[in-house]
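Reopening this one. Same input as before:
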Amino acid sequence: MPENTQNTNTQIDPAQDPSSPYYVHPSDSQYKLVNNQFNGSGYNDWKRSVIIGLSAKNKLGFIDGTITKPSSTSPLLKAWTRCNSTLIAWFTQILDVTIARSVLYFETAQEICLQQQIADLDQESDSVSSFYTKLKMIWDDLDAHNPLPICTCNNCTCDVTRKVLKMQEDQRLTLFLMKLREEFKQARGTILMQHPLASLSHAYRLLMQEERHKEVYVVVHNNDEPMAFNASNTKKRFYDQASESDKYGSSYNRSNIGDRSNTGDRYLPPRVSYQGNQGRRPFCNHL
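Same output, byte for byte:
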């Protein structure tokens, strides 16, 4: 009789496989990703420490997007939910109390990391377009992992989807404006004073125009400075030459022109000395 053979191809439950990212060790509930809590400063160092800690626990895929949430019918959903909850617990332990409260109701650990990237992001030396692109990339990741709910009612009249989208856009517009450099303070105030608030795309176009105006002003201003400097130097040289001319001309008149004293405007030749006669040089007065 043929011997009964045991099926060796039985699939191991990923949650029970220590090599699987879905595996959670009983001691992981006490695990700390980093020693210091993040309080809003030193984000890059904190982020690097978190990446190392997650990689050591084989959980980096839950953060970088390589492991996505399974469908509601997937047998991995339960294991994924357990790992995701574990990661959220890890993050709340290494965040300052104020920051931890602001991310406590996020549904995924990846959202927490993305929100921390936004919190640390500022325009600094970036152009408006470059800074907006950085924010937009993070927002797109958030939307992909946590899309907004959509009303599926037949003949819906509540318009809830549009209202939720508008609320989200207003929040993102305010965040975008508040992270711009101080030179955009006036434009920021003008946009925020509008009621209702402008769309994010419209505000972006206004800021791009403002940035171009500032660039043109700087170019024109920088070109005007050397022109004004050269004009000032030219004017100074003109007056210097005029002063020199006046100085030498006055000296010449005093020493060389004839005596105008007591003669009105009549010109008298200069006094000269020559042999046998002193006085004025003779001249012919015949017509």
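So the earlier flakiness isn't reproducible anymore. For the record, The radius of gyration is 42 Å.
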